[in-house]
Amino acid sequence: MAPAIMLAADAPRLSSANTGFMLICSALVMLMTPALAFFYGGMVRVKSTLNMLMMSFISLGIVTILWVLYGFSLAFGNGNRLIGYNADWIGLSDIGLTELWDGYTIPVFVFMVFQLMFAILTPALISGALADRVKFSAWALFVALWATIVYIPVAHWVWASDGWAFKLGVIDFAGGTAVHINAGAAALGVILVIGKRVGFKRDPMRPHSLPLVMLGAGLLWFGWFGFNAGSWLGNDDGVGALMFVNTQVATAAAMLAWLGYEKIRHGACTTLGAASGAVAGLVAITPSGGAVSPLGAIAVGAIAGVACAAAVGLKFKFGYDDSLDVVGVHMVGGILGSLLVGFFATGKGQSTATGVFYGDHSFDQLWKQCAGVFAVLAYSLIASAVLAFLLDRTLGMRVTEDEEISGIDQAEHAETAYDFSGAGGGVAGIATAAPAAAQTRKVDA
Prior knowledge:
The protein is mostly helical. 64% of the residues lie in helices and 0% in strands. Helix 3 packs across helix 4 (108-126) and helix 4 runs parallel beside helix 7.
């Protein structure tokens, strides 16, 4: 009887504290999708504002339903190294209210809804690369297909206990590979298929509302604490607290590094640079923050801030139209954050794995990180390009040139973001174009 009694005593029990903590974190991650909508919405021209907001918001609807129907089962059910399956989780039909997530003190429902918020945010990230030119109906279908074919398998690889990357020992605390590299590579794949905006590299395409951009960036920073610290699924051993601290530290370092790069290279520190630098730091610390020290977080953030600031100009050099720098910030930042684990991991955080600077002179963890990074990058890039190609050849991905020039908001949503014909003057019933913001990101053309 003694071993049975000991086993019962050692079995995890539902923790109301951890459950409450994780529900709060889930709400914070949900907030990140509207925050992203504001961040992107302020960066586009007036005539595309509503479309940009809707491209994020529609993910809240589509991915939620798919996740309940089959997404959670395929991503986290016991299956094989590539995909999972649990019949009891199809439609969430047979999950007990107090049934615990294996090895943790939170209910399965709580883990499910936390991961749902990640699944919602990831395709929304892609939308920033496609501003001004994609049919809303085609985008909605792309979100459904991409979440099913790309996001769900990659989430299984990285986070499910039987996923190949998880078994290999790839460290991705909260989504450097599954979220940011995945979304950034997908963005690159799609824009290579659908082509450039009308007037790319010729017409001014300045952000119409930098205050909206700063509001979105601030809300993203706030929500990211739930995104990162919550990914430890509890608050018992201090690792979540380490991640919380490193999230703040790396974001601050990246913002300062981006502004320093701007000042040296272009002579000014812009508000758009501050917002973009903060997001770059958040992206880079996402995979690494549970494995590095706060000093390591400063290094990760600073490296990402400079590298991502330089990377956003590559679209002009190579001729791909990444409208709002999803490739330059999310793909590049995700790659850097994931690979830097192989250098800065201390062995005193989420695992005992160490990086090159902490004694791993065999580069063992670095090679594992490389495997995860480049596998996700290649799969997402190719699969996303194929999806975009098929949709473009069937439904057509792009609006017409006339609709793009006149404004995608009116063409796709029969609305405009601002009414310039009301109390402020102007001719009643005629929407006039808002003046472009005077400031814009300065990049190498």
